[in-house]
Amino acid sequence: MKVVDTNVIIHGRGLDEKALTTPEAIAELKSDYSKTRSLALDIETVQPSKESIEKVEQKSREICSNTSEVDESLLALAIDREVVLMTDDKGLQNLAHHLEAKVEGFLDDVASRKISWVMKCPSCGKETEKMCTSCGINPVRKRDQYSSV
Ligand SMILES: [Zn+2]
Predict the structure, then answer these.
(1) Which of the residue ranges 22-36, 53-67, 96-110 would you say has the lowest mean pLDDT?
(2) Mean pLDDT of 67-77
(3) Interatomic CA distance for residues 80 and 52, integer angstroms
(4) How far, in Å, from the CA of 113 to the mean position of ligand 1?
(5) Choice between 116 and 16, residue whose per-residue pLDDT is larger
(6) Structural domains of the chain, with CATH
(7) By C-alpha distance, which of 148, 149, 142 is closest to 63?
(8) Mean pLDDT of 62-77
(9) Separation between Cα atoms, residue 77 and residue 10, nearest integer Å
(10) Which of 6, 27, 38, 113 has its CA at a distance of 20 to 30 angstroms from the CA of residue 126?
(11) 124 C-alpha vs ligand 1 centroid, how far in Å?
């Protein structure tokens, strides 16, 4: 059993095991085609626990991850069930690495590096979450550090 992202649901032909997803991910599937596709797979929709969502959101903020709420709900569910998260989204794979969750690619290999970012003023380089008080410029996301996993 695996947690799968919406891309896997849409293109999931040949996925031969039971899959789990979240209500948030199902809501993201807008086209009738993908709804039809999701019905063809054996998918159970499960709400992740509040604890896991908080854990994922906290780590996401810590590393300035650009993952969406939907992505983070899927990772939280994979952590709840201690199962593999299947996704080709590099940002989500990266966040999973930071939380030591098991992650697998669907069409692609999993990123082998763990990256974190910081918000910095593009002019003076000061680390800041809000507009730089010296330059009056909004911060941008800059790579902070990375390591192999
Ligand atoms: Zn500045």
Answers:
(1) 22-36
(2) 97
(3) 7
(4) 29
(5) 116
(6) 2-104 (3.40.50.1010), 113-148 (no CATH)
(7) 142
(8) 96
(9) 19
(10) 113
(11) 4
